[in-house]
Amino acid sequence: MSLTAERNVGEMLTAAGTGNALELRGVTRMFGALAALTDVTLTVKPGERRGVLGSNGAGKTTLFNCVTGDFLPTSGTIRLFGEDVTSFPPHERIRRGLRRTYQISLLFGGLSVIDNVYLACRGVSRGRFSMRRPRRSDALMQSATELIDAVHLGDVAETLVAELSYGQQRQLEIALALAGAPRFILFDEPAAGLSPTERSDLVAILTSLPRHIGYIIIEHDMDVALRVAETVSMMHNGRIFKEGLPSEIENDPEVQELYLGGGHG
User: What's phi and psi for 263, nearest 5 deg?
Assistant: First the structure.
């Protein structure tokens, strides 16, 4: 299936869904006596791009882990496109169009860029268990090539992943997340460790994603987060304490005091 066809499928699935893209109601996650998340309520509309910001330990990654099913919430509910997925395992959420990137790159270093993306496309396709060796004319291979171009890695498609720069590996992770007509993506600090030039490239990639794909981005780099997010939720001590437009969050005195040291340049 080509990238255009995958986009059409994603748009139809999103249109067929009911309600919000993502809806958390009273989500709490306990680790023994420690509350990593406390009564988190969050609503993201289809196609919306949301930034979730906060200092280390605010609960951002735990929030992602609950949404993906890596952790089940201690209490509360999680709905994905109107369907209650609170108790679903991760693979069932993936089947419903949820994708995620991680803080630490999870790639096959000994394979080429094109092989990594092809495997991602194959893994979410009906023929994923086929033993047939793909040809360059294979539809999934064509889709993988389009995804590589979409994240600006066309020039290194045949390069081993282990030989890529760190920034290129982060771009590759985005290509993997785009495989198989995703409807909603969670980006976990995609700008971490990137150079200023690589950050600019990341912003261009994220802002050019198809409009039907909504996402949440966790990011410490405020310049990146405020450029790619349409709305922002601020977390502190496992709770969401403030939401607003990027300009409102950037200029909020309480946000500046807690996260920006009194100002933001």
Answer: -175, 165
